[in-house]
Design goal:
InterPro entries: FAD/NAD-bd_sf (IPR036188), FAD/NAD-binding_dom (IPR023753), Ferredoxin-NADP_redctase_2 (IPR050097), Pyr_nucl-diS_OxRdtase_2_AS (IPR008255), Thioredox_Rdtase (IPR005982). With 317 residues, the chain is of the alpha/beta class. The chain contains seven helices and 19 strands. 24% of the residues lie in helices and 27% in strands. The two termini are 26 Å apart. The protein binds NADPH dihydro-nicotinamide-adenine-dinucleotide phosphate. NADPH dihydro-nicotinamide-adenine-dinucleotide phosphate binds next to helix 5.
Length: 317
């Protein structure tokens, strides 16, 4: 990291999901003059969803991108300085903390709110890379449009997989839901929706071991009851392959300084967004392996901003 400081701020927020924007709203209203860097995916994961039905205050629902734009406008209204840019390195060895943006600019900040969220996981089979952008996707709502009247598969058995399968079923001719266990982990309401959608076929106890196709995905190699005596190889013909097997927290650049769990979620002091480094707070999915909801992320962003304000006032800054 370069030693030359380009800018000094009181409150730096990294990330632009519900946690980051809510922190920006609260920090602005508390006169902390926050600077927020939006990161790789401005607006965060909700910009890749369609309808959000469970964010309080929207009785008719709202689209993910609209919700994020509303949050951003609310933060701008109170003076938050929202910028494009990605945090690429950190030095949290002593306050004020140094954050490098886009590998060049160094910002020195009294308080840091980490709201970098989480990123979709892949299975780890080589074919996922081979067919990247050629039939493999981790976002049904981004790419589903390309599969109208086609056949697709979704991998995973959680709420995300069910949601994506239901969404794709509205576009595609046929959807396979590939589930490695003999049951779905998703909530009952999502399971019911899947089972009541005629063009979704759930393939329980199936694992994907490869994809095939000439100029793009034309099918998947599956194994039914892998490792069991009655193990069976099954090939399905598909045009698109969607991953929905969970997420990895975006915490890598903070790991030298902050404690994380075995998956990479930043550990915070229970019931608070405080990390083990004073003045550094973590909010939203990067620190939440349990709830991972927009509203809980927003709530923790609020807490982080309140903590930052209290920390600065205790330090007399
Ligand atoms: P989850 O961690 O809940 O589920 C991941 C799914 O992927 C599991 O079924 C898991 O299988 C499967 N999986 C993981 N790794 C592999 C692998 N290598 N091969 C095959 N399958 C694999 O993640 P989600 O993203 O679904 O949900 C995250 C959180 O967000 C949850 O708390 C969920 O409730 C919430 N959510 C809520 C929504 C809503 O309320 N509308 C919508 C979307 C998400 P296994 O079960 O065998 O471990």
């Amino acid at each position: 990291m370069s030693d030359s400081i380009n800018e000094k701020v009181r409150c730096l927020i990294i990330g632009s999901g519900p946690a980051g924007y809510t922190a920006a709203i609260y920090a602005s209203r508390a006169n902390l003059s926050p600077v927020l860097y939006e990161g790789i995916q401005p607006g965060g994961q909700l910009t890749t969803t369609t309808e959000v039905e469970n964010f309080p205050g929207y009785p008719e629902g709202i689209t993910g991108p609209e919700l994020m734009e509303d949050l951003k406008q609310q933060a701008l209204r109170f003076g938050a300085d929202i910028r494009f840019g990605i945090a690429t390195a950190t030095d949290l060895s002593a306050a004020p903390y140094k954050i490098t943006i886009d590998g060049e600019k160094v910002i020195e900040t009294e308080t840091l709110i980490i709201a970098t969220g989480a990123t979709a996981k892949y299975l780890g089979i080589p074919d996922e890379h081979k067919y990247a952008g050629m039939g493999v996707s981790a976002c049904a709502t981004c790419d589903g449009f390309f599969y109208r009247k086609k056949v697709v598969a979704v991998v995973g058995g959680g709420d995300t997989a069910c949601e994506e399968a239901i969404y794709l079923a509205g576009l595609a001719k046929q959807v396979y839901l590939i589930v490695r266990k003999p049951y779905l982990r998703a909530s009952k309401v999502m399971q019911d929706r899947v089972f009541n959608t005629p063009n979704i076929m759930v393939l329980f106890e199936h694992n994907t071991i490869g994809l095939f196709g000439e100029n793009g995905v034309e099918g998947a190699h599956l194994v039914k009851r892998m490792g069991e005596p009655d193990e069976e190889k099954v090939d399905i013909a598909i045009d698109g392959f969607f991953l929905a097997i969970g997420h990895k927290p975006n915490s890598d650049i903070f790991k030298p300084w902050l404690e994380t769990d075995e998956i990479g979620y930043i550990k915070t002091i229970p019931d608070t967004p405080r990390t083990t480094v004073p003045g550094v707070f973590a909010a939203g999915d990067v620190a939440d392996p349990h709830y991972r909801q927009a509203i809980t992320a927003a709530g923790s962003g609020c807490k982080a901003a309140i903590e930052a304000e209290r920390y600065l006032s205790e330090m007399g800054k």
